[in-house]
Amino acid sequence: MSTKTPKRPRDPNQLAKFIVDVATGGVDVREPTPTEARARKAGVKGGPARAKKLTPAERSEIASVAAQARWKKSY
């Protein structure tokens, strides 16, 4: 069995079936372990802290690299 939580389907009919499966115990939707929860909490804090530390020029450079990576994918 996979340790990841299953993705929610986007199709309304599949989503309804997924909800029924979860409610009846057909799909195991697990809670994150304490280690995973702590890592998530640190990640949520880390992004804004990093952004606050960066200079405007550094932020602009990071944004340019990210934009180029996004545009590169679309071709």
Secondary structure topology:
Elements: H1 12-24, H2 34-53, H3 56-74
Structure description:
This protein is mainly alpha-helical and 75 residues long. It has one domain. Helix content is 69%, strand content 0%. It has three helices and no strands. The chain has helices spanning 12-24, 34-53, 56-74. It is flat. The two termini are 37 Å apart. The model has no long low-confidence stretch (mean pLDDT 86).
Features:
mainly alpha, 75 residues
- Ranges where pLDDT stays below 50 over 5 or more residues in a row are none
Total number of helices: 3
What Rg is obtained from the alpha carbons, in whole angstroms? 19 Å
Order of helices and strands: HHH
Give helix % range: 55-70%
Instruction: Give the oligomeric state of the chains in this entry, treating copies of one chain as homo and distinct chains as hetero.
Output: single chain
Q: Name the overall outline.
A: flat
Distance from first to last alpha carbon:
37 Å
Would you summarize the structure shown here?
With 75 residues, the chain is mostly helical. The protein has three helices and no strands.
